[in-house]
Amino acid sequence: MAHLRSRRRLALAVPVVLSLTASLGFLPAAASAAPRTAPAAEQVTDAPTLAYVVNTEVDRRTIASVKKAVAAAGGTVVVTYDRIGVIVVHSANPDFGKEIREARGVQSAGATRTAPLTAAGTTDVGAADYVTAAEAARTKAASAGTPGSEPLEADQWDLRAIGADEAAKINPGSDKVTVAVIDTGVDDTHP
Strand runs (DSSP E) across the chain, as ranges? Predict the structure, then answer.
């Protein structure tokens, strides 16, 4: 029965850890600016801050022990999911991953990415390029001749990146299929 229970925990923990790891990419770089009190954190000042996911047993004593080890290794706890034994940590210590994996009670730990996040400005590209009424009319006329064409297709780099343009050549789709996209956003407070 205990073996079944541990499989069930693993089956629940894996999707949660993966979604947490993916959602860390959306955190702003300023979220890691919390002050650190651990001596190891004060030694490392020029290193980039990286995010880590630390997996532990689900008992409170182990989680408390691992949180102390996180602070001792120069990390700052961002969020803890006690019920599944996951701790999300930010650290500028380049050896944090190695040090925390050696801590008692840690089952596994790793960085969520290998390079720090940099703040992206909205004006990095330059000034806005305004379209004249004549250019807009030409674009509209050019796309109006093709039914079902997308006027902003040239701007959809993501579709080319996943090969959707090549897939559309093989199977252009069907008028008999209706697709609904319901996007409720990301709720980072959802357990």
Answer: 50-56, 75-81, 86-91, 106-111
